[in-house]
Amino acid sequence: MDVSNILASHAAKYQSITVEKETPLEVDPGFLTVTDLNPIDEESYNENLEEHLQSLARDGIQALYASLFTLPTRTSPDGPLAQLPPPKTQLPRAKPLPKPKPQTKWEAFAAAKGIQHKVRDRKEWDEERQEWVNRWGRNGKNKQLEEQWITEVPLNADVDHDPRKAARDARKERVAKNEKKHAQNVARAAAANPRDARKQDIEKTLATTRISTASMGKFDKKLDGEKKIRGVKRKFDPTEKSVADEAKASVALLSRLESDSKKTRREPQAEESVLNTRKAVRFASKGRGGLALGREAAGGRSSRGGRGRGRGGKR
Amino acid sequence: MRPLTEEESKAVFTKLANYIGKNLIHLIDRQDEPYCFRLHKDRVYYVSESSMRLGISVARPNLVSLGTCFGKFSKTGKFKLHVTALDYLAQYAKYKVWIKPNGEMPFLYGNHVVKAHLGRITEDTPEHQGVVVFSMKDIPLGFGVTARSTVDTRKLDPTAIIVFHQAYVSSTVIRFLYSPTPSDVGEYLRDEDTLF
Lengths: 315, 196
What we know:
The complex is a heterodimer.
Chain A: H1 4-13, E1 26-28, E2 33-35, H2 42-47, H3 49-69, E3 73-74, E4 81-82, H4 105-113, E5 123-126, E6 131-134, H5 144-147, H6 163-190, H7 194-210, H8 243-259, H9 277-284, H10 290-298, H11 304-310
Antiparallel strand pairs in A: 1-2, 3-4, 5-6
Chain B: E1 2-3, H1 6-20, H2 24-28, E2 35-40, E3 43-48, H3 49-56, E4 68-73, E5 79-81, H4 86-92, E6 96-99, H5 101-108, E7 113-114, E8 118-121, E9 130-135, E10 140-146, H6 150-153, E11 161-168, H7 171-178, H8 192-195
Subcellular location (chain A): Nucleus
GO biological process, one term (chain A): ribosome biogenesis
InterPro entries (chain A): Ribosom_reg
């Protein structure tokens, strides 16, 4: 009995569960993706496109399912769940690579001379205290000279030489110098792209010239494709904001205003204490002021008024 | 209509603090009803939250005024107090000046307060301090800035200026105030077209 016919018809009905390709399909179960690297079969493509695509898709899905069934599973109330491995396919980077930072003057010099960058520790060993202390900042070692209780004064020092002030000034100078160098580095980096700088400069000049006519540019001939000059748009809080929040912000502003004594008029001290000092002084000195009162308190005899009136009768 | 920015609030608060000092907190943090400052057409309005919320629905060109106008911002960004703020200034004023009846009219015509017209003055008023000017019947007439401190005024001659006037209520308003039911206090003769 020949069963080959039956087998062939059965095989045609249920296509094989193994997918045979010249180049094996690349399956990435982590992303649930299949990539077919085989060249397109031109004959079947031209003959019937729909059927060709369907058979391609069927093969791909079959390969994916086959790989899924080899994965370890976990039981769940909805039936077994396959545990996907981490994806293998490398996705391209979403953002462009960061641009390298412009070199500072020192970095350029160090690179030219081959000087290696040494990482300086934030802490420094203090021999006297036998502990690690901050190099700068709070209780920093760089302030040691101005904070120690006794300082050696050089022999040829001036009379008004203040070693603490000298040390502090020197430190402040170093900080200022560093800041200046930093500003210079920033300026140098900004000027590194002269094209951009020039473009900005031209745009600024153009905007200025456009409004530099008698009508502030209102009645000038418009060129094709000329853009409207837009300034910086102001942004305000919404009107319908909670008034309670607004009051809170106002109170905070008020307290800041009060602490900023330079900008607002200083409150007279009388308000803070129960005693009105100015009034009390005026009362005690009988309107002659605090100086007279002080003179009287220092020594009654030396005061002019006391002698004149008080002992005049004994004469 | 919009809330003030920080710089604007700073300008308004410093100006108000010159007259009412720390009482300013009573304007911001009110017990009865929440009030807020709103800017509309360069003018600063002191308005209750409920009125402000009603005012939101009015289109900007149609909105003439809301709440109490406290003053306006000049084109250079300085804040100028208007006499409409007098009610609140008088209520919370720290330093006050009372002027005699014969000095009321000269003040209301825009002159400075001279010493001859000075009835009473708060003790210990410093120089260049914002003060509210009252009539002897305790009716607020306007506000100004002292030219001299209280102590210094004693030595001055009667024609010397004590208070530089800043704003005053016109006499019509005073008549309304004197009448038993002050119905329409909105008639500010001199500035009525620019006040709001």
